[in-house]
From TrEMBL:
Family statement: Belongs to the Asterix family.
Pfam families: ASTER
Organism ancestry: Eukaryota, Amoebozoa, Evosea, Eumycetozoa, Dictyostelia
Protein's UniProt name: UPF0139 membrane protein
Coiled coil residues, start to end: none
A biological-process GO annotation: protein insertion into ER membrane
Length: 101
């Protein structure tokens, strides 16, 4: 039997994680709305679904609304906003717009 055997409560060792610093918490805090925006934009552009592009715009707006600091993910937000709106522009104003569902 090794030390900390859970079958013997007297020898069990309970360990607790040290509390995370604010910087580590921010690193773990992912922007799920931005990821959904990218995913739906790719689906909308490559599978040619207008509804996926509109969902991408909604996710992009939700990501902007839930952003904690203005400088947090400026490059990611710029690319997701541009991807979703350019996808909509392609769906409605391109010469092949009749191919989009």
């Amino acid at each position: 039997m090794n030390k900390g055997d859970p079958r013997r409560p007297a020898t069990a060792i309970f360990e607790m994680r040290p509390p995370l610093s604010q910087q580590e918490k921010d690193a773990q805090n992912l922007d799920y709305w931005s990821m959904l925006c990218f995913a739906f934009a790719f689906i909308g552009i490559f599978a040619r679904y207008k509804i996926a592009l509109w969902i991408s715009v909604v996710c992009c707006i939700a990501s902007l609304a839930n952003m904690k600091s203005a400088d947090g993910g400026l490059r990611a937000m710029t690319s997701s906003v541009s991807m979703s709106f350019l996808g909509l522009a392609m769906a409605y104003f391109s010469p092949n717009s009749h191919l989009y569902n």
